[in-house]
Predict the structure.
Amino acid sequence: MSTLLRLATAGSVDDGKSTLVGRLLHDTKNVLADQMLSIERVSRERGMGAPDLALLTDGLRAEREQGITIDVAHRYFATANRSFVLADCPGHVEYTRNMVTGSSTADAVVLLVDARHGVIEQTRRHLAVVALLRTPHVIVAVNKVDLVGYSQERFAEVDAQVRAAAAELGVRKVTTVPVSALVGDNVAERSAAMPWYEGPSLLELIETIPVLDDTIEAPFRLPVQLVVRPQGAAIGADADPSLLDYRGYAGRITSGSVAVGDEVVVLPSGRRSSVAGIDLGSRTLERASAPSSVTIRLTDDVDVSRGDTLVTAEDVPTLTRSLDARLCWLSPTPLRERARVLVKHGTATVTAIAERIENRLDVDTLTDGPADTLELNDIGTVALRLASPIPAEEYARTRAGGALVVVDPASGATLAAGMVESIRAEG
């Protein structure tokens, strides 16, 4: 079992997400003593009989809503069994786009649902996002069960709503757990108030779920970030003379592994070569795997530039100028057909045209319908035509090879996060 879990939390406003995150930090003893004293003091000043654990995260949220810091706050905590990186996503509808950012690298998402209200539009939207991102584990915390009298019947109703919505959206597996973040029921420890619930607590779930690193098993891919070629003046007169002939290609391995001697292909040129060496800082490696950032040296003097991709010769992705992408539209400026945009895939940035908007997801009916625009927070499929070919892969096969970002060519602002649904090969 991996010792690190990347976790994201999401939920609608007033579902109690702040309190749940605060309770999780408190009950796992990841709150400093001076923080706790401050929370107790503020809670007393507000006339509250118990510490308001939501204050552990609300300060960050207030800053985010004023535009002072980033929209997704990251918290780090640990237990005896596992370490966690928690991405705390805002709950407001207008910040749904930020859930895409917070959940894009998550191993698991904890989605809150108010036991009194059940599945609402924002719940469906969040489930649609985790379905698109193919998040490996989805946990739905049915919160505020204390306000429905710890009713087994009500939990069963909400559980059925969640599973129906998840199935319609294509979420392969979802786990539900009844909790009361305010009281602490089933958060860190199982609750005696719900003897009818025989499952694990939320903490037990996130401590034990397996993290399957499919990036290592996938074919080798390295988008080139930088061509490393020291110049004489830069390395100094007393440096090793061999550095004068040094040429390496630096980047982060997004999937698979590579070893000295392996045959690789440079895309989009298609030139072949073999790995002469792998450098990690001042160290030389025989093998490197995702997600390491390394410098690759090749046996042949081939033309490689930033934006190219090194891939294994045993599994070369198809180059394409035409693809269908599922986009989460993140901009207040709507997307219209024939709009000119930039598409970032790996380290490559190419000009593109949105040829057609194929459909848009209706979060109420959970079905795709016709559309001629994509508005803020919309999710839809768009046919893109690129000016230059890229080695795109279907997101269903590989998250790294199938992910892309759509950018405004005038301002450089991010317009959409995209997942490749299908590609059309170059002739």
Remarks:
- The longest strand covers residues 348-362.
